[in-house]
Amino acid sequence: MSQSTSDTALDVASVVEDVNLRRIGHYTIIILFLGFFLLPLITGIMTALKTSNAVANTLPFMPPLGDGFTLANLEYAFGRLSHAFVNSLLMAIPATIINVLLASMAAFGLTMVRWRGQLGILVLFLIGIFVPYQAVLVPLARFWNNIFPIADMLEPLFSIVPLIQGYHSALVPLIVTHVAYGIPICMLLFRSYYQSLPNSLVEAAKIDGASITKIYRRIILPISKPMFGVVFIYQFTQIYNEFLFSFTLVTSANSSEAPITLIIPTVGASTSGIDFGIRMAAAFLAALPTIILYVAFAEQFAKGLETESA
Amino acid sequence: MTTHDTTETTETATGPSEERVDWQTKLRYFLNSDFVRSSPYWGIPFLLMGIAVYGGIGYNLAISFTDYAGIARPSFSSLDLEMYRRALADGSFRAAAFQNFVLLVGFTSISLGLGLFLAVLLDYGIRYKETIQTIYLLPMALSFVVTAQLWLWMYSPGSNGMLNVLVTTFGFEPIDWLGNPKLSLAAVIFALVWQFSGYAMVVFLAGLQSLPSDQFEAAKVDGASTTKTYVRIIIPQLKQASVGAAVVLMLFALKAFDFLYAITGNYRPPNGTDILATLMVREAFQYGQWAYGAAIATMLLLLSLAVIAPYLIFQHRQGSL
């Protein structure tokens, strides 16, 4: 009897110890991964704040001390980027708004009413999400440059409008392109939300004789406000961060209409190599809007990602 | 009331007009159907997307059969498979296809594995879960271009690159990570895993949280170890989440052009990391070999379709389409 009691006591002790060790191990791994995800960012920020002398002579992740600290990199990078930053916003904001609206309409049309053949249209939308942009780049470049050069047509008009420059007309083809290729994924995000709404909501309105327009404006639009936030944040980040379309349609980082992603790989590059202090400063300034959006709306951002794969 | 009247009067009419009525009611019925009434809503976005995606693919396919190059106009008078033959005979195409495959499989499986591991770690009722999740996912908010700059600096071949600081601390010589063709592809995959494993984690975490906890409790009562419970009971139920995350990750891998271009700031990515996407843009937009680029793009499209067709069928079978 006494034998068994001592056994139990031992077991309990070992279990408690085991649990504590496990918890400690668990948190250690979590913290190690925090380091893994933060190290490149910390290294980048520290480097952005260092003089080129300090970049060469101190460890890359160490904070700049004394003479090594400078804001000159950020100042210089801001000078190079401020222009492109305006271009990126002039492109991303209207493109996102049109995109989100059209996508919400499409999702409404495909979930709130039922008709035969709907699945076919839906599959065509879904394939649109997965098409690699390379597969449409050559036609796209030909269309906007040779067949329908809308940028050149609009340029005189754009130079009359206050606060906007003539060269901003080159952003119009980019906006249309982003809207067209952004519709499928945004439609999917809205669709999964509309599917989760109770069926009775629309059925009741239908029985009351509400038209489809009325159902959309009076019921669906107000109720999908939170989803508009999610899709807007998701899509704004995508368009602001996009590179390939800008690269192939604007062609040169030296053009005055170049969006910010096009400029970053050229900032701080010289014949003697890359000035990483300046390059990191540019990278952080460019990433700042999406980082702020992300930190402020992390939950919405994650929700957008969850539904994307569902 | 008025509509009812008209139908009644016309119904009493004879012969040919009866047929006409039938046709009219059919038309009226059709115009009132949900298909037509909802068409402005899905039709306008569908038209825009359809022209851009399917029109673009069709035109690209047509160009890929020509020998369109330089500043001339594409001539559709003689169409052949010359460009496809040229690609298959080209050593750099085959190298790019192989590296594309390694990137696709390596990046997707590592990101999925790491994402699952992180999701299980965070699903344990730990403190500050939300904050930790936000930090793990943070790289996802950055663009490929910014990530490329951060890792260009991390991989800097001199002794002041972050990874070489680690290497030299352990007494080894500094390594040229991106310049060495044996290491460069792994280095690229590692950086992409850094950026996107948080994505897989979020998807798995959502999947884990949607599972009923009573199974876990039951397994615990039966005396199964935690590892066993995860391997035998929990993870098999994450099939849906895994498939979804895998498809999206593969598409990120196919789109890695941005990353590879930005890491050197020119058309030629680091040694040994050329993939179909970079080859296509280089051939078309640097050398003006439009038809050849279009042919490579068509093959890249076929590769993506091979990834997504099974996915769409799977989704349809699961009833989530």
Per-chain topology:
The complex is a heterodimer of chains A (310) and B (321).
Chain A (H helix, E strand, L loop, with lengths): L1 H47 L3 H6 L14 H40 L6 H13 L3 H14 L2 H11 L10 H26 L2 H9 L4 H12 L1 H17 L2 H7 L9 H4 L5 E2 L2 E2 L1 H21 L1 H12 L1
Antiparallel strand pairs in A: 1-2
Helix pairs in contact in A: 1-13, 3-7, 3-10, 3-13, 4-7, 7-10, 10-13, 10-14
Chain B lengths: L1 H10 L3 H17 L2 H4 L1 H26 L17 H8 L1 H32 L6 H9 L6 H11 L7 H8 L14 H27 L3 H8 L4 H9 L4 H16 L2 H8 L11 H11 L3 H28 L4
Helix pairs in contact in B: 4-16, 5-16, 6-10, 6-13, 8-14, 10-13, 11-12, 13-16, 15-16
Tags for this model:
heterodimer, A: 310 residues, 14 helices, disordered N terminus, B: 321 residues, mainly alpha, MetI-like fold, 16 helices, flat, MetI-like_sf (chain B), MetI-like (chain B), ABC_transporter_permease (chain B)
Estimate percent helicity of chain B: over 70%
Q: Give the amount of beta strand of chain B, in percent.
A: under 5%
| SS summary, helix count of chain B | 16
Q: Tell me the overall shape of chain B.
A: flat
Membrane topology (chain B): Multi-pass membrane protein
Subcellular location (chain B): Cell membrane
Main location (chain B): membrane
GO biological process, one term (chain B): transmembrane transport
Describe this structure in words.
Chain B: This is Binding-protein-dependent transport systems inner membrane component. The complex is a heterodimer of chains A (310) and B (321). Chain A is mostly helical. Chain A has two domains: 2-68, no CATH class; 72-309, Orthogonal Bundle (MetI-like fold), CATH 1.10.3720.10. Chain A has 14 helices and two strands, in the order ααααααααααααββαα. In chain A, helix 3 (72-111) packs across helix 10 (225-241) and helix 4 crosses helix 7. With 321 residues, chain B is mainly alpha-helical. The model of chain B is unreliable at 1-13 (pLDDT under 50). Chain B has a domain at 96-317: MetI-like fold. The longest helix of chain B has 32 residues, at 91-122. Chain B is built from 16 helices and no strands. In chain B, helix 4 (39-64) crosses helix 16 (290-317).
